[in-house]
Design brief:
The structure holds 2 protein chains of 2 kinds.
Chain A: H1 2-13, H2 21-37, H3 42-56, H4 59-62, H5 67-84, E1 98-103, H6 110-123, E2 128-133, H7 140-151, E3 155-156, H8 164-178, E4 182-187, H9 195-208, E5 212-218, H10 225-235, E6 240-244, H11 254-262, E7 266-270, E8 278-280, H12 283-290
Parallel strand pairs in A: 1-4, 1-5, 2-3, 2-4, 5-6, 6-7
Antiparallel strand pairs in A: 7-8
Chain B: H1 9-21, H2 26-38, H3 48-63, E1 78-83, H4 90-103, E2 108-113, H5 120-131, E3 134-136, H6 144-157, E4 162-167, H7 175-191, E5 198-204, H8 210-221, E6 226-230, H9 240-247, E7 252-256, E8 264-266, H10 269-276
Parallel strand pairs in B: 1-4, 1-5, 2-3, 2-4, 5-6, 6-7
Antiparallel strand pairs in B: 7-8
Helix pairs in contact in B: 1-2, 2-3, 3-10, 4-5, 6-7
The chains are: A alpha/beta, B alpha/beta.
Bound molecules: guanosine-5'-triphosphate (2 copies) and magnesium ion (2 copies).
One guanosine-5'-triphosphate sits between chains A (106-112, 134, 137, 140, 188-189, 244-245, 247, 270-273, 277) and B (86-87, 117, 169, 171).
Chain lengths: 292, 278
């Protein structure tokens, strides 16, 4: 773990007198390596290490009898700060038809997450309606219906011959008719470099007028996380991120990269395949995993 | 300043960053760039182009220079098991293989052994219809081993050339799910001790260092004989394949480059390495 490696760095220095700037830089080399191995984007790592280096060059560390502990403490605190020390406010509005729009790369877990979010909101007294706007993937509409059945939430679809904007417009009217106060819109996976699909998404967002726009991203994403997140944010705009598949052993550095490049909070974590495998995002847990 | 006898360190650092950005990983990237430092040809006035050329050769030393494509020849039925973590593109890859097999005039049987995920069977059924393949399935929540048992019997009686088994996505850290996979292999082996003749681990190009853990744990559980990397039509470079080839001996069979039936290619090491630097 990074903690052990840092202690190793500073142990070797004991007996050489006090800690110097060179010693700190050697420790930062270990921090950089740990973050890269944890899939934090290399540009984000650079900035992070620079910032922690400056803080580590203070008297507190240089004169400490346990500099390794101080450095790891600094790194941990800095990570938590970056990941979003305060929980993001997920406030839906009373008396309107709320809309949550979900999008992201192929296979990131959107359809599954739609079900989890529906259950989470239903438990809080909202009346969700799932909206099937993936008109591309084989059996996607059927998948959303089955997911809905699993959480006792109805799903609205218009088949695959209408575009997502039309489907959402009709879904809104249907929601009002049926007394549903929350639309959760599931969309097809798409590449941020696919102009046609990004146009479809922009058009959908204009029609949907979402209360929340979420990027659903896979926690095991590597260096590419910043590319897709930045593009989705720049071209469509996101309010927040939901990170799925956190029940694996991926170190989850993508969380830091996505947060840094979009500036938006991480709201939820997917921690399994079942409908109640949803957690509010815990920055301290992710920070500990990133540090191994 | 003359750089005679030394390699341009700034350039080397830039090259290391290109590799890291491509998900080659910090350890493998350093190893490749360090080899440049030791390389006589890299010294002197070697420019970026020369160094990149040498770096590519270093990567090809690891990846191999020959394609090792999928072959469905020999045993009949040729049984292919497709495994991997959630959402990587297993079902879609099977659809692409079924399309290819149809073009090769081979009778293909798809096996819906993902009995867990919502509409997994329906999704595979659509691919069977699209590609003219047969499909073996059971009701929702059926035991995947039982579906495979039925399929092996049906394949023999229907004289299928190739059997493609779709399994549920599963995280390698879930012990019970890995046990389920081992059981599927045992069921298949009961029918033909040499089967599955190919076990493909499907990886997502956007996945980072976790692919190493996936490869290790999946190949400890089942006899993985080939890797597939999907979603290389995105911006992810899939450089983790270099790290994987460095640590494991598993041939890289196919790359996925889109969502349609024709969107795959045999893995060609030189093309892959060139694309990484584009
Ligand atoms: N272990 C685990 N699996 C998950 C999680 N979220 C989703 N999955 C699984 O990931 C796979 C993909 O999920 P989907 O919901 O189909 O993903 P998607 O983003 O809708 O996929 P596309 O619509 O094709 O882009 C499925 O096998 C899900 O069960 C999670 O938090 N943990
Ligand atoms: N762009 C792109 N998308 C792909 C590729 N391969 C698969 N996909 C998409 O990725 C998503 C997931 O594909 P699936 O075939 O359902 O993945 P899976 O591994 O079977 O998923 P689970 O069974 O839920 O674990 C779908 O939206 C596919 O269309 C590829 O090579 N490129
Ligand atoms: Mg989906
Ligand atoms: Mg599947």
């Amino acid at each position: 773990s990074l903690g052990q490696r840092l202690n190793g760095v500073f142990k070797r220095l004991r007996g050489h007198g006090k800690i110097t700037e060179t010693n700190i830089r050697e420790a930062m080399h270990e921090v950089r390596l740990a973050l890269l191995q944890a899939d934090v984007n290399f540009k984000v790592v650079k900035e992070f290490v620079q910032s922690v280096t400056e803080k580590s060059l203070g008297a507190e560390v240089l004169q400490s009898i346990s500099p390794g502990e101080h450095v790891i403490g600094l790194v941990h605190r800095e990570l938590i700060e970056l990941l979003g020390a305060r929980a993001a406010a997920f406030d839906l509005k009373q008396g309107v038809t709320n809309v949550i729009l979900l999008f992201g790369l192929q296979g990131s877990g959107k359809t599954t997450f739609a079900g989890k979010l529906a259950l989470h909101c239903a438990k809080k007294g909202w009346k969700p309606l799932l909206v099937a706007c993936d008109i591309h993937r084989p059996a996607a509409i059927r998948q959303l219906h089955v997911v809905g059945e699993g959480v006792g939430v109805p799903a609205f679809d218009l088949g695959t011959d209408h575009d997502p904007s039309e489907i959402t417009e009709r879904a809104k009217r249907h929601a009002v008719e049926q007394g549903r106060d929350l639309l959760i819109v599931d969309t097809a996976g798409r590449l941020h470099i696919d102009e046609v699909r990004m146009d479809e998404l922009r058009k959908l967002k204009r029609t949907a007028e979402p209360t929340f726009t979420f990027l659903v991203a896979d926690a095991m994403t590597g260096q590419d996380a910043v590319n897709s997140a930045a593009k989705f944010h720049e071209q469509v705009g996101i309010d927040g991120v939901c990170l799925t598949k956190q029940d694996g052993d991926a170190r989850g550095g993508a969380a830091l990269s996505i947060r840094k490049v979009t500036g938006k909070p991480i709201f939820f974590a997917g921690v399994g395949e079942k409908p109640d495998d949803l957690e509010v995002f815990h920055p301290d847990r992710v920070a500990s995993r990133i540090l191994g | 300043i003359s750089l005679r006898g030394k390699v341009d360190e700034e350039l080397l650092n830039e090259l290391e960053e290109i590799l890291i950005q491509a998900d080659v990983g910090p350890d493998t990237s350093l190893k490749l760039v360090d080899a440049l430092r030791q390389n006589r040809e890299a010294r002197g006035e070697a420019g970026a182009e020369k160094l990149i050329g040498l770096l590519k050769e270093g990567m090809l030393d690891i990846l191999g220079r020959e394609s090792r494509p999928l072959a469905f020849d020999g045993p009949k039925p040729f049984v292919t098991l497709v495994v991997g973590v959630n959402g990587t593109g297993k079902t879609t890859t099977i659809g692409k293989l079924a399309q290819r097999l149809r073009q090769e005039g081979r009778s293909t049987m798809l096996v819906a052994a993902d009995t867990f995920r919502a509409a997994a069977v329906e999704q595979l059924e659509i691919w069977a219809r699209r590609t003219g393949a047969e499909i073996v399935k059971q009701g929702a929540g059926a035991d995947p081993g039982s579906v495979c048992f039925d399929a092996m019997q049906a394949a023999r009686s229907h004289h299928a050339d190739v059997v493609l088994i779709d399994t549920a996505g599963r995280l390698h850290t879930k012990v019970n799910l890995m046990e389920e996979l081992k059981k599927i292999v045992r069921v298949i082996q009961k029918h033909d001790p040499a089967a599955p003749h190919e076990t493909l681990l499907v990886l997502d190009a956007t996945t980072g260092q976790n692919a190493i853990s996936q490869a290790r744990i999946f190949s400890e559980a089942v006899p993985v004989t080939g890797l597939v990397m999907t979603k290389l039509d995105g911006t992810a470079k899939g450089g983790i394949l270099v790290a994987l080839s460095d640590q494991f001996e598993i041939p890289i069979r196919i790359i996925g480059i889109g969502e349609g039936a024709e969107d795959y290619r045999d893995f060609v090491p030189r093309d892959f390495v060139d694309a990484l630097f584009e």
